[in-house]
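Co-fold these.
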Amino acid sequence: MKKNVKLCMVGAGRVGKNHSHAIVRHIPSGEIVSLVDPAEAVRAETGAEFGITVGFDSLEEAIDKVDFDGVIITTPTPSHVELTVIAAENGKHVFLEKPMALNLEECDRIIEVTRKNGVLLQLGFMRRFQPEFVAAYTRIQAGEIGNPMMVKSLTHGPGLPPKWACDLRTSNGMLAEVNSHDWDAVRWLMGSNYDRVYAEIANLKGEMFNVDIPNFYDNTLVNIKFENGTLGMFSGICPCSYGYDARMEIVGDKGIMQIGEMKGEAVIVCNDRDHGLVTPIFKRWPQRFLWGYIYELEHFIDCIRSGKEPAVGGEDGRWAVAGVLAGTKSFQEERPVYLKEVMK
Amino acid sequence: MKKNVKLCMVGAGRVGKNHSHAIVRHIPSGEIVSLVDPAEAVRAETGAEFGITVGFDSLEEAIDKVDFDGVIITTPTPSHVELTVIAAENGKHVFLEKPMALNLEECDRIIEVTRKNGVLLQLGFMRRFQPEFVAAYTRIQAGEIGNPMMVKSLTHGPGLPPKWACDLRTSNGMLAEVNSHDWDAVRWLMGSNYDRVYAEIANLKGEMFNVDIPNFYDNTLVNIKFENGTLGMFSGICPCSYGYDARMEIVGDKGIMQIGEMKGEAVIVCNDRDHGLVTPIFKRWPQRFLWGYIYELEHFIDCIRSGKEPAVGGEDGRWAVAGVLAGTKSFQEERPVYLKEVMK
Amino acid sequence: MKKNVKLCMVGAGRVGKNHSHAIVRHIPSGEIVSLVDPAEAVRAETGAEFGITVGFDSLEEAIDKVDFDGVIITTPTPSHVELTVIAAENGKHVFLEKPMALNLEECDRIIEVTRKNGVLLQLGFMRRFQPEFVAAYTRIQAGEIGNPMMVKSLTHGPGLPPKWACDLRTSNGMLAEVNSHDWDAVRWLMGSNYDRVYAEIANLKGEMFNVDIPNFYDNTLVNIKFENGTLGMFSGICPCSYGYDARMEIVGDKGIMQIGEMKGEAVIVCNDRDHGLVTPIFKRWPQRFLWGYIYELEHFIDCIRSGKEPAVGGEDGRWAVAGVLAGTKSFQEERPVYLKEVMK
Amino acid sequence: MKKNVKLCMVGAGRVGKNHSHAIVRHIPSGEIVSLVDPAEAVRAETGAEFGITVGFDSLEEAIDKVDFDGVIITTPTPSHVELTVIAAENGKHVFLEKPMALNLEECDRIIEVTRKNGVLLQLGFMRRFQPEFVAAYTRIQAGEIGNPMMVKSLTHGPGLPPKWACDLRTSNGMLAEVNSHDWDAVRWLMGSNYDRVYAEIANLKGEMFNVDIPNFYDNTLVNIKFENGTLGMFSGICPCSYGYDARMEIVGDKGIMQIGEMKGEAVIVCNDRDHGLVTPIFKRWPQRFLWGYIYELEHFIDCIRSGKEPAVGGEDGRWAVAGVLAGTKSFQEERPVYLKEVMK
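Predicted complex below.
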């Protein structure tokens, strides 16, 4: 199996490290030939950890100096459109982390520039590649629970996100940064687009964490009506303190399906009968979605090799952004918001 | 232990049978001395099954002929106010099934008449007495998960309710008939009243079951903002086909708690590796909440004996009805509805 | 339903209390009309707790003074044969706690005297009435796992038994006092008698608990070959410290079945991601086998009413005692022992 | 990270494929530079599947033609000693599949030849590298359950092993071929060697599978007394039909620990309330111990790189073989057998 797909990792932070690990360690068909990050110390650390010896401050420089097939963009949301344009116009395939962009105009620009330049665009919705989610999708398609009627999802994460990701003036906040995966997963499993959404938010831990962002919220519950008349909801809590939690439940007209669990390891201990059984939990997202990250990146590499279209692309990213915008408008205006209001 | 509390069971149908079973079989301190139901065949069957030999067409007749301390009202919602008035004015304590009544005026009348006549009023929210819910409440009070931030609940039941209970012209529909327990349980565990609610509904199985009621719905998702700023939601599905399912999940600023499970029996079988492990499920509500029904009725009997106020009373029933009214208004007007709009 | 079966509870200690609770609280068809225990304080306490106002020092006295249909013998093993003889010769049906007796001669005497006097004899193997064990038995009979090939069982209990029950000079020790239920359950589910047994024992906590009994053991592993050629094993640990644990696993030529679980309540909590999920455990045997105790005593009462033979009787008790004797001989002589060696 | 450890895979069958997958796919620091198998078709298939283009009929030929650091021996047990001698005498490090050898003389020869030639010897006990087993070991070492008192293990596999592996005239049968891992794991977790063992066997499916080997058995239960006085047992069933099942349970003087589970995927479905919840199971060993295989081979490669001694070596393999020999002698002579009888 030749190491014949060459990649440039753009962003050397948490996600850049996670994806580098997946490729270097578990995907022999891909190779990271350069690492881009203007923060030299971070770049050096990530480069050293994964044996990536070639690094640059900017994507342009990397393109100029090194030959590669595609880029993996793991930088903050505001930079997505610009980096994608650079990559696409230089003929590089694009793997883009969620959320796709800050607004629909940027999404359109990303879709357009990749199409026009004939490069692939894959969005980083790794749940679509996580084995138990894939198994659930396959079972639903096979009719095991009949026609889906109602879907529930949750993403609760332990740590406070960086400030820019909590502030609606610089990002779309938790609905985008934490719940992008829920937006995508409920739409994928229900096989229908959102018709309207209603979102409640609350700021319940801000004071505890000394957050002074005026529009900060750390809890959300989103209600969704799909175009086909079915219902859905998801919750987001961040920081939630107790671990990394991502599960779904879907009811069809013939049955119910549960996807995922909190248990992180097949060991159970009891040494105090007043306390009870203790089971380890998933603590962090890289552990929770280990295989999803491996398989999504392998899929991207396979698509580059074969030229086939990625299973999750620009339209999927765009719908998730549209959901975020409608959800945000909903809690701001305290009313249900139709997708057509934000999608025009 | 003397059999010294005498009760009159009003209603000999499904719930009347369930409660008769609980008392006759598991509560030695209570005794059913008469059974009221105008449907003679049903009354005869239930009477025979539980050894209740004295039966009447009406509560008035029972009061006239037999001596007892309290009534257990298990009849359809529209009859609740009238039966409570009769009981209270004759000095009988009242155990009243949910939903309390069709509207808040009826609730007020029930509260008033029981107060004025000095009789106890207990609402049939048996989840407050179900061991795992009680354990959860106790743990929350003890601070195990910190301050509750978000609560989720669900009630999914297998069978199509009777026609009157599905039609908004004769009842408050699924939000009342199926989800009364969720309304009460989320309020109880969060320790806060609802501020506003938003409800989505869908009719996804009506056609399959040949339901021709114009306002029928069988799926609902309700979003709740509590007065203390926290969030909640619950779902209702009826008929759901796969069993009787009632679970909750509550997240506090220090942790998460799961209450209840689908598993109905501690046996697991595997005889086909392509199929997997099979675990029995709860099939019906009397099995799911067996202990809740026993303990709530025992509590009522204890209150009669001791004169103490029941732990769940008219105000709790009234809040659940108010939630139902706000939820119904919400899906009818497609907007969030404040409780103050329906409670005045 | 008339309270028409009158019972005399013999023994007012832990088991006497447990069985009184089951009858007084959950079995309306039975009534405890007298309580026998020479220890006056214990008798007074148990009598007060369950409203049994008539008490005696001896069974003879009770028989002389009060009318009843049967006795429930919950006293220490050495007293079983004498009490059974008194009851049987006075025409009282006998419910006898495990272990049946100290040796096979006593078992034979018990079987003989009850037969000759035409009274029923039921052994206190409540697992045969515990819902998940009954469900397992039914599923096995229905062929769900094919022909049973191997059975495993365990009973691990938290507390140190009373001294007489730990000493082979005064009882048959843990194999009898703790594992009688395993002896019976494996034989019942496999549908075959033991052919030979091999037992290992260990004294691993004796020092910690300052036990100075020379033959004391607190851990045992017993291997069983059944007459039909299948295999079985069980473990006993007492005291085990972590809770009350009783589970089984049985493999047939078509599948596997697991019976029971450690989890004692449907609540799960997580408030520390380094610690993990916490689930309450069964702490004590009355909680673990609540329904088994209720149903076995109800079965006894039903048999008295109907005259039908109890489902678990003298032969079953005798086989369990034979197993204990063979197991004890095995660890003493450090070799497998055939049942025919001890049964003659 | 340089691909600097070169390996020769000896044996292209089921295990050879499994280990090739682990290395090619998940261990970038190792490289398979040649594949040895006299069965040309099998070799071609495995070579093609994993991109190993260089293949030979014999290890000698591979050594002669290609440069590598170590061998991975996955061939049937009888070939182990000869292949190890060839490898060691040519300075190649040895990773050897279980069971180590047919008898203790062969074990000694393997230990001696690798020592004398200064090459590493690692045994293929992958459970020592499987995350939940490692976590359990770590927790035990940290004192979480106190001093281990009793260990239970099981390995039940779905398929009938090849004929040579079922016949005591050509191998040591199921105790060796299936239960080698249990022998090693119980010794590892208890931290003590076997003092004596007692084994029961049964042939319960031979007829169903038309097995005509006279000494065939498919069920075994083994009782172990450890040198430190603690107890252990394990079961083997093969073929068991219902899936691949490998779990352990260990009780210490302070608590209990369960390791592993039957559940193979975090998806649960219910679409029939009479049937219940369905959970996928582990079907085959490569799926069950995926990470164990990756980590054990990575450990071997790390040891080659660093020169450090593998964590599981010749002595461990030798003890497992000694257990097999004592167990076999036990069921043949129908008595407990001390290890000193077979180890001299």
